[in-house]
Every structure is written in structure tokens, then in C-alpha cells.
Amino acid sequence: MNRSNSCPSHQSIVSGSDFLQLNILDAPVGGRSHWLAQQLRLAIADRRLPVGSKLPATRVLAGELRVSRGVVTEAYQRLIEDGHVAGHGRSGTIVVAAPAVPPEAPPTRPVVAPSPGALFAAEPGADIFDSMRAIPARIDLSPGTPDLAAFPRSAWLRAERSALASLSASDLGYGDPRGTPALRHAIANWLARNRAIRVDPNDILIVAGTAQTLSLLGQVLRDDGISAVAVEDPGSLGARQHLRNQRLDTPPIPVDHQGARVDVLRDVAARAVLLTPAHQFPTGVVLSGARRRELMSWASDNDGLIIEDDYDAEHRYDRPPVPALRSVLPNHVCYAGSVSKLLAPALRIGWVLAPPKYQDALVAAKRFADLGNAALPQHVLAQLMGSGEMERQLRFLRTRHRSRRDAMVDAVRTHLPEAVIHGAAAGLHLMITFDATFADTDLAASALARGVKVQPLSWHSQHSPRPGLVLGYAANTPTAISEGVATLGDVLRHLP
Amino acid sequence: MNRSNSCPSHQSIVSGSDFLQLNILDAPVGGRSHWLAQQLRLAIADRRLPVGSKLPATRVLAGELRVSRGVVTEAYQRLIEDGHVAGHGRSGTIVVAAPAVPPEAPPTRPVVAPSPGALFAAEPGADIFDSMRAIPARIDLSPGTPDLAAFPRSAWLRAERSALASLSASDLGYGDPRGTPALRHAIANWLARNRAIRVDPNDILIVAGTAQTLSLLGQVLRDDGISAVAVEDPGSLGARQHLRNQRLDTPPIPVDHQGARVDVLRDVAARAVLLTPAHQFPTGVVLSGARRRELMSWASDNDGLIIEDDYDAEHRYDRPPVPALRSVLPNHVCYAGSVSKLLAPALRIGWVLAPPKYQDALVAAKRFADLGNAALPQHVLAQLMGSGEMERQLRFLRTRHRSRRDAMVDAVRTHLPEAVIHGAAAGLHLMITFDATFADTDLAASALARGVKVQPLSWHSQHSPRPGLVLGYAANTPTAISEGVATLGDVLRHLP
């Protein structure tokens, strides 16, 4: 920075009628000291008054500005309190520190979306889904979100109005870290109706989605001496990343047409396992009754913990969903649910039902994490659940998602006849695999270059024998689905 | 449990026209299998069909119920998928596992508020503020909340309506873990206007309040090899608990009339310090200009980190607040702010401005914690900040809080003339101390037994020479304040 032109030299007296071109007429009546202090701060910040320079004597500046000396004394006093200037007795008042100056050119952390090629070239890191989201695409077939266009905005607003009208002042203060009693009560009823789970509302902990459940539970399990949580393979990359961030190993358990291989689980050195029994992610398999019984034996034989991620269990199209494992095994299952697949991920509301021995530790972890979820959205959600609005929404989504699933199955059969479609008629996505040897990351990269976003199966696999894709259909119209899958077919035929 | 009366014996065939008193007329048309499966699940859950019992043959039950055999087969199939029953070929269909039965008598974790005596008898634990909140009181003089009755409910609802009308569907999906661009932009402008901080919105991280800031930052600091964060003494008990939960030591730095003693900080083995410079909690002292300069030297000499908890800086009644330390020392200050004292703690929204070297790690920690704050409230808050509504709210609160502070000062002078009042004309609470030797926990316990809730100073002190109280006034009317303090005076005179 060139200080020689615009700035006074070290220790020179800055004064004269032109001092900072101050015009007292700019100051609000009754706020002159405040105004003057602010002008001086700005001048110090942009180096018009550099560190080491001396301010005019109060008497002199008061005369120049035609204000009382008290106005200037008061302004200087504020700068002394700020720490910007210091009074040095007869030596006068000296600038001793400057506020930060903002960067002059582009922001320090420009947000640049990575190229499709770069995105899929390396092992997916912790920010992979953020990077993926940052890339614009014509058709987004990423899995994991329901039809967000169907979010019940009017019902939400009505419930919010009603909540704001009925809340007491203390409801807006710090609250129970477990969540509001109203929502825990509503969720207990929801789980009884929809998931065959009977639970005392006091045993429900409201969290900021299943991501937070894994983070909090990871801490609690480590404190309990557990160092590994077995995971399904293929299984959710995001969940695996969350567990690993808690310094937990994630030994893979293969998934076949009946779900996770419990016989393999028996051979793995893990006292805990993360499962998606109702609709396995990403294969879409429903855990069979035989496997459920094997799991129960495993849990009792090994004092094992099953983390049941019930992420999209309500979205079954051919028949009612299977009951949650939690409903038969409350002492060995930590059950995790959320509204991310029922309403919207952006709400960041979920719930966890821990086995009795972990409940207190989990509440403590939630308290230390953030003192509990925000209250207003909990009251709104409790109303939607209590009024039947949530069930209406779910019925609507089921119909819509089912027709979109059908559209995607048709499109795959037409445009990707070589693909094998996996999984039950359920959920928000389907998995396809190819009996071939190409890298599915190349397919995903080429598709993204053509404006179609998909996730390669290998991202979600620890040992992946076959290339594949995980395709979300819930958030797309049948037309977009058909067009997107047609592009995939075209891309596949032109893969090098 | 007495199974002998109501339950069939092991492996006996349950059948006959009275089987479970099922009445097919109760079943919805087209949903008979679903209904039957549900009835069987209920019977298994309440042990009318215990584990080991055999279900009637499908042909038999179909005849009894006068439905097609397919209806029964389908219901049994669902129970097999659940894992509740198993087909054993010619041996028939056997119940093999039961869903959980809810506790029959009182809930497992009854919520009982502790007695005032018990609450103050022991060292305060991690759940102390929850326990405190659970005890009802006529007058609550706990510090830490603004006047929640003044929460701008109409403005919030208007902003919510506008947000719901303008958001795109993808705004309801998973988002940037740093927070919505709109809110980060609005906060950058708020901080420039109100706290003399100039910051790029990309360098702001939205969090779930300052509690989460401490949790996330604690993880990041430990990963950077920092094992201790010095804290003010007296200083916030809650903040100290959060740091200790992250396995950080919290060496105490005494506070005098100029704020934290930076000379002591120099002698302490800590590379980081948590401060409340604008209005120290709980003393109410404003960090002096001289100390601010000492701090700056400490930070540059030791590559030190200052965590600036700016919790109620905007609430200054006699003059504009001093600028934030962050405004002069961006590379050494991690700045934490929130809306808890501006709007309501229940919103769980805060922000953190980390030094460049910690920004990426802090974003990663937030991603792993919960994938980012909920989006809707962020959009609402951005609107309130952008429209000037927040400044209106702040002006309103300042006037109201100031008169309540005056009322409390008057009440203390009248009813507790022996008390010394500390701190600047600012904030939401004041601290009083007594030149005496009684235990302030006894005073707080006796006051609570008389229906007045206060926090003893000793809770917030690591070394406490004098008894004292921390008294919140913001959330009470002048009448309640006067009545509460009068009770305190009466209690004090009758202390054993």
C-alpha cells in the first residue's frame, strides 16, 4: 500500500480545516460524538489515519468543526475504549491499532464448481456431495430427496401461524435438549401408526437429522469402548464418512437378495452394525424374515447394537412397509428416523430411539452439540403430524413417487436394456448394475458433462464387483426421467 | 407375566371360530390382508399369541373368517417378512418373535424436577440448567434471555410467508453446510453496521448458536494440538462445560474492573482464550482499551487465538457498543455471535467468523455435525435483517431492557443495600456481590424455595472470593423485578 501520498507522516499533527474532510452538517443532531468516532474509525481502518499518527488536540478539532470540545473529547474517549487510539498525556492522542480492512479484490474463498472429470477422478472426500451439488445440471438424478416441489408450503405456513399464536414466551427460551414435548408425543404416535413401534415420548430424542444421530451416537459408542460399526456393502457413502469421522472402523457386510449377510457379521469384530432393513441403500433389498431372526440372535448372543436407519421405510408402493426392527428388539436397536424423505432435508429434523443404556449419554451429547433443536419448526411439525397432514402428504408422495419409479423402470428397460434393476417397489431411488467391466465413475462423469447428474455405485461400495448407478427418481417428472435415462444410454454406448 | 390363563400352550393349534375374536366385518374392503396381519401382530405383541404358538392353517382360518385363502396366505407372508412368524413346512406356521410391549405402568424415565435444596447442594453438572428450568418459579431472574414476550411474531410470520413463496424446490434439499448465501450476506451487512466488522459472506459459517460454535471449535482446536482454552474467572459456567466436554483444560484468568487480566494470560499455558470483551459475563465489565492492546500483543507474540463471544454486545444503553476485537485482529480472533439475545434462544441460530487457518476445518466439523442449519429459518432471518426489522427490534429491546435494568438497580439499592452492583449499563443481567462469607448457593436455594429463581455467582467462578448473584432482568416486568429482589432481601436477612 502506498501510504506516502494520502497519509500524514509518522507522528505528524493531523489538523487544519481539511481534516478528513469532515463536515459536521453530516452528523445527526444529538449524535455528533458517535458520528465523529465513527468517521475516525473509518479513517483509521482505511489508513487515512495510519497507526502512529496523532489526532488533533480536542480544542483544535472542536474549533475546526464548530462543536463543543466535549463532543470531540467524548469521541476520542470511545476510540480509546475501542483500543484504536491511546492518550499519551502531553504527547497527545495517538492511533495505536487499526481495524481490519476488507480484501480489495475478489473474495478470499471464491466458490468454483469443480469440473465433472475432476469430481469423479479421485476417491470421494468429505465434501463430495457439496461439490456435486455445486455443479449445475440439466437433469439431477441424484438419490436422496423426495419430490420437493410437493412440500406442503400452505399447510406449513398455517401450522406456523398457529404455533406462533399459541406459544408462550418461555417456549422461545432455552428448552429441553431432547426436544419439545409436543413433537416427541406426535412422533411416538406416528411411529406407532406407521412403524409398529411403541415408545414412551420421554425416550425419543429430537435431532438435526440422521447425520447428527450418527455423529452423536459415534461419540457415545466410542465412550463405551466400541471402535467399529459394521456397515452394509454396498451402503451409504455419507453414513460411512460420518462414522469414520468419529474414528470408528466400518467393516463391510455384503448385501445379497435377502439383505445384509448376518453370517458375515458374526465373523466381523464389531459389536455394532448400521443397517437399512426396510429398504436397503442403495440396493433396495428388504431384509428377509429369516435374516431378521438371525440378526436378533446375533444381537442377543453378542450384546450387539443394531443402528436401524429407517430412512425411507414409509415409501413402500406394493404393500405396507415391514415393521421396524426396533419394534421387536428395543434393547438392542438404536432407531433413527427423519423428515428428510417425508418433507424436506432442509428442515434438519430427525429422531432417535436409543436403547435404555445409551439414552442419557445421547441426551448429554445432544446438549453439548447444540443445546437441542430449534423450537418453532418442532411445534410446526408436531401440528402437521397431529392433524393428519403428514399422512396426507405421505399418501400423495407415494402415488407420485410410484409413478415416477414406473417411469424410470420403463426408461431403463428402453434405453439401458443391458442394465439389471435391483430392489423392491419402494423408496426414492433405484440401483442398476451392468455385467461389464467399465468404471462407473467414467459413466457418471460423461453423463454429467452431458448435463445429467447420477451417482456411481462404486462411491457407495467398499468392494464393488460390478459397475452400476444409483438413480433418484422422486424429484423428477417422468419426462425428465425418460430424457435423463436416454442420455445415460447414449453416454454408455459412447464410453471409450 | 401370567401366560397360563389367556394364552394357548406351547405348540398348540390356535383356531376355532373364536380365534382372536376376529371379525372380518371390521376389515376395510380391499385391505383385508393388511388388517389381518395387523391383528395378528397386535396379538403377538400382547402375548395372546406367544412365541412358539402355531397359527391356524391358512385353509382353516380362511374358512372361519369367510375370506379367500389368498387373504390369509398374504397376511401370513407379511408376518414372515416381519420376522414375527416362520413357515415350518408341514409343521405349520409358528410365532418366533414378538414386538416390544410398552411399559405397563409409569414411563421408564419419569421427569421429576429436583428440589431446590438438592439442586444447589452439589457441584453443578452438565444438566444443571435443564434441572433449573424444570423447577417452576413465581419469578425467574435467571440471566441469559432477552424479553421473549417482545419476539416479533407477526414480522416473523410475514417473513416466513414471503420465504415460502419465493424458495425454489432445491432450496428445500440438502444445502451448503456453511448456511444459506442470503443469510451469510445479511449477517455480513449486520456485522458491518453494528459491530464494525467487515467480512466476506463466504467466510461466515452459520451454526446452531454459540454452544455449537464451542463444540465445533473445540474439535478443531484439539486437532490442531491445542489442549487448553483459558477462560475468564468469573465466567460462563455453560461455556466452560462445553470446552471441558471437548477435553480442553480451562485455566482461569481473573477479571478486574478493566476486564480479563492479560498479564495473567501471559503466564498461563494456553494458546487460546475465550473472552466476552464487549460485556463480560457475568461481571458486566467492558474490556478496556489498554487491555485490548495488551491482548493484541499477546496474540501476535504467541500466535494466540482469541475466541470472542460477542453474546450481547448490541445491548449497550449508555453509548454505542465498542467495536468487536474481530474488527482489528481478524487473523487471531474467532468471532461468535447469535440471535439468542436479539430474538430468541429457541431459534438456535448463530454465526462464527474463524481465522482463515481454521475456516475449512470448521466447515468440515459443521458438515459432520449436522450437514448445516435448517434452511427455512435462515431465509426468514435474512429477510428480517435485510428489511431493517432486526434493528427495529433491537431499538425496542434496548429501551425496554434499559428501563428494566434501572428497575433492578433501584430494587437492589432498596432491598439489598449491602450488595455491590457491578458492570456497565449494558446487557440482559447484572452481577451483585456481598462483602460477607455466606454460601451464595444457600441464598439461591432459599430464594427458589420462596419462588424466586436466581443463579449463584459461585456457579460461574473457578475461584470465588465473595458470594454473589447473577440476576437477569430482561425477561421480567419492573413489578416482578422489584418483588423478586424484595424476596431476595428478605431471604438474605433470614439466612442461617
Characterize the structure shown.
Two copies of one chain form a homodimer. By secondary structure, chain A is of the alpha/beta class. Chain A contains 16 helices and 16 strands. Chain A has an eight-stranded mixed beta sheet with strand order 4-11-10-9-8-5-6-7, with helices on both faces. Chain A has a four-stranded antiparallel beta sheet with strand order 12-13-16-15. In chain A, strands 1-2 form a two-stranded antiparallel sheet. Chains A and B meet through helix 1, helix 3, helix 5, helix 6 and helix 8 of A and helix 1, helix 3, helix 5, helix 6 and helix 8 of B.
- Enumerate the spans of chain A where pLDDT stays under 50 for 5 or more consecutive residues: 1-17, 102-108
Question: Largest chain interface and its two residue counts?
Answer: A-B, 105 and 106 residues
Order of adjacent strands in the largest pleated sheet of chain A:
4-11-10-9-8-5-6-7
How would you describe the oligomerization state of the chains in this entry?
A: homodimer
Question: Count the helices of chain A. How many?
Answer: 16
The Rg value of chain A, from CA coordinates, equals 31 Å
| Strand residue content of chain A | 5-15%
Q: What is the tally of beta strands of chain A?
A: 16
Task: Tell me the distance between the termini of chain A.
Answer: 54 Å
Task: Specify the overall morphology of chain A.
Answer: elongated
List the helices and strands and how they pair.
The structure is a homodimer of 496-residue chains.
Chain A: H1 32-45, H2 58-65, H3 69-82, E1 85-87, E2 93-95, H4 116-121, H5 128-134, E3 139-140, H6 153-166, H7 181-195, E4 204-207, H8 210-223, E5 229-233, H9 237-245, E6 252-256, E7 259-260, H10 262-267, E8 272-275, H11 289-302, E9 305-309, E10 333-338, E11 350-353, H12 356-370, H13 375-386, H14 389-415, E12 419-422, E13 429-434, H15 440-449, E14 452-453, E15 455-456, E16 468-472, H16 478-493
Parallel strand pairs in A: 3-14, 5-6, 5-8, 8-9, 9-10
Antiparallel strand pairs in A: 1-2, 4-11, 6-7, 10-11, 12-13, 13-16, 15-16
